[in-house]
Structure formats: C-alpha cells, structure tokens
Write a structure and sequence with these properties.
about 90 residues; mainly alpha; YggX-like; two-stranded antiparallel sheet; about 50% helix; about 10% strand; globular
Length: about 90
C-alpha cells in the first residue's frame, strides 16, 4: 500500500517515499513532504553534481555541499548550478 504526501517540490498530492531515505531531521522532512517523483528528479541532479564537481562522498565538506543543494532543490525550488563549474587548483 503506497502512501500519499503533499509534495512541496511539485506542489501537489503524490505518492510518497516508502521509507526515510536520508538520516536526521532533514530526512524526516523529506519523507513527510517529498514525493517519489521529486526524489527521482533530485537523484538525477545529484548524480550530475557528483560527476560534474567530482565530489567524494567520504569528504564531509562535499557531503555538506550536496545536502545544501538537495535541500535547496527539494524545498526552495532552486536548481543546482552545474554548468561552468571550475574546480579549485589542486
């Protein structure tokens, strides 16, 4: 049996996630108010960001950046900037 949530990203009633996919308070907020469809949209963006910016999920700063981008995308409707990123010189 699927659950329905009012998806704040899509601004409509939609099928909710089956379980909390992200830890903590943000994860609960996502579970309560983000649909499967919106989560799928984010997953595509997340993959592009990780690849484009060569993010390392073992790096706390990279995870923090990605979490901020996720929150902005899902709750503020802000598309992450992917094009034209210049990595810092190593």
């Amino acid at each position: 049996m699927s659950r329905t949530v009012f998806c704040v990203h899509l601004n409509k009633e939609a099928e909710g996630l089956d379980f909390q996919l992200y830890p903590g308070e943000l994860g609960k907020r996502i579970f309560d108010s983000i649909s499967k469809e919106a989560w799928g949209l984010w997953q595509k963006k997340q993959t592009m960001l990780i690849n484009e910016k060569k993010l390392n999920m073992m790096d706390a700063e990279h995870r923090k950046f990605l979490e901020g981008a996720m929150s902005d995308f899902l709750f503020e409707g802000k598309d992450p900037q992917i094009e034209g990123y210049t990595p810092p010189n190593a």
